[in-house]
Write a structure and sequence with these properties.
Elements (H helix, E strand, L loop, with lengths): L2 H14 L7 E7 L4 H13 L3 E7 L15 H8 L4 E4 L9 H9 L4 E4 L5 H9 L3 H16 L3 E5 L5 E5 L7 E3 L7 E3 L4 E4 L7 E6 L3 E2 L10 E6 L2 E6 L2 H11 L9 E7 L10 H4 L6 E8 L9 E11 L3 E4 L2 E5 L2 E2 L2 H4 L9
Parallel strand pairs: 1-2, 1-3, 3-4, 4-8
Antiparallel strand pairs: 5-6, 5-17, 6-10, 7-9, 9-14, 10-12, 11-16, 12-13, 14-15, 15-16, 17-18, 18-19
Helix pairs in contact: 1-2, 1-5, 3-4
């Protein structure tokens, strides 16, 4: 076993999930999952005295509800209804599938994390080599600063310049490496903000990966013109035209509405085309387009047939006119003092 991988698995189990002796830890995977990652987490859970269960299944043909026809729905649901922890390493993710919805609705103690397409290098970079406790303090401070602001502006060297109002009634999610409480958790290193609907104005330029339809960096930056939170123009290279057609293919005006913005703050994340990692690149911002859940934006959310995400690298951010980040570097003094060690690349 790779000792760096085992250390990362230990951090996931001990520091992030705070797994206790006697807890049931379900680890799901499909035939395209990384077996070494699954085994390392299984062994870490066993080492702390938990009861780990590895569940491997044939790779479903779709994700979410589209995976249902290929799942043992009742058997998998039954197991998850009694689990304390569920860590998902599936390639075709089960997030929003029927077993997921049943477990989240009925198992009020469940702590869940979706780690799609995790391999050894990704596990080591984004979990094993991250100072979780220090990063948590920094991210919580940024979250509070953002929640208490009324206005946010974001620019990038690629030409992004967008502003919006912050809606205090919308949920600001901070995935800061604490999955010790029941709920849905994601990989460490992202703060998600749902702006006040209808207030986003300016230009958003994706110079990192865009998923879907690509799952990679576009051939040229994709520029979105935004008026009142709606995309009115898409320009760039050939991929920009493909992206516009992708949005149009849903025949749903909701797919031209901006959904959310997120800060990327994982010190180990690099641009790979895997959106789970890319949207956590330090100093980036990520924009979601389309669907927003009622949980994130009560009471109704934002309806749309689907959702996609794009990355804006090296972001500068102002909150109520005060700059806190300059091209990916934290410049506000109090926040800068909390920044964890960053790798030299």
């Amino acid at each position: 076993m790779n000792p760096l991988l085992q250390n990362a698995a230990d951090k996931l189990i001990r520091e992030i999930f705070a797994v206790q002796p006697g807890e049931t830890v379900v680890i799901t995977a499909d035939d395209d999952s990384d077996a070494a990652v699954v085994q390392a987490v299984y062994e870490s859970a066993h080492a702390v005295g938990a009861h780990p269960l590895k569940v491997q299944m044939p790779t479903p043909r779709g994700v979410g509800k589209a995976a249902d026809p290929d799942l043992a729905l009742d058997a998998l649901s039954g197991m998850l209804l009694y689990a304390d922890v569920w860590i998902e390493f599936n390639h075709q993710w089960l997030l929003y599938s029927t077993p997921f919805e049943r477990a989240e609705a009925q198992n009020k103690k469940l702590r869940y994390m979706c780690l799609v397409d995790f391999n050894e290098a990704l596990m080591i970079r984004t979990i094993g080599q991250v100072e979780t406790a220090q990063l948590r303090d920094f991210m919580l401070a940024v979250t509070e600063r953002t929640k208490n602001a009324k206005h946010m502006r974001v620019t990038t060297p690629a030409g992004c310049d967008v502003s919006f109002e912050i809606e205090p009634k919308h949920y600001t999610a901070c995935d800061c490496g604490d999955a010790s409480k029941p709920g849905i958790h994601m990989l460490t290193g992202q703060i998600n903000v749902v702006p006040r609907f209808g207030t986003i104005q300016g230009k958003i330029v994706f110079d990192g990966s865009v998923t879907p339809p690509f799952g990679r960096i576009p051939d040229a930056p994709i520029c979105l013109t935004i008026e009142n939170s709606v995309i009115t123009e898409v320009t760039g290279g050939e991929d920009a035209a493909v992206f516009r057609k992708h949005l149009e293919s849903f025949e749903d005006p909701g797919m031209f509405k901006l959904a959310h913005i997120a800060y990327g703050f994982n010190p180990g994340a690099i641009l790979t085309g895997n959106i789970v990692e890319d949207e956590r690149i330090w100093g980036s911002t990520e924009w979601g387009i389309g669907y927003v859940s009622p949980f994130d934006a009560p009471p109704h959310g934002q309806d749309a047939k689907s959702h996609c995400d794009g990355i804006c690298l090296n972001s500068s951010v102002w909150l109520d006119g005060v700059q806190i980040m300059d091209e990916g570097k934290i410049v506000e003094e109090a926040l800068a003092a909390l920044v964890p060690p960053l790798p030299n690349r």
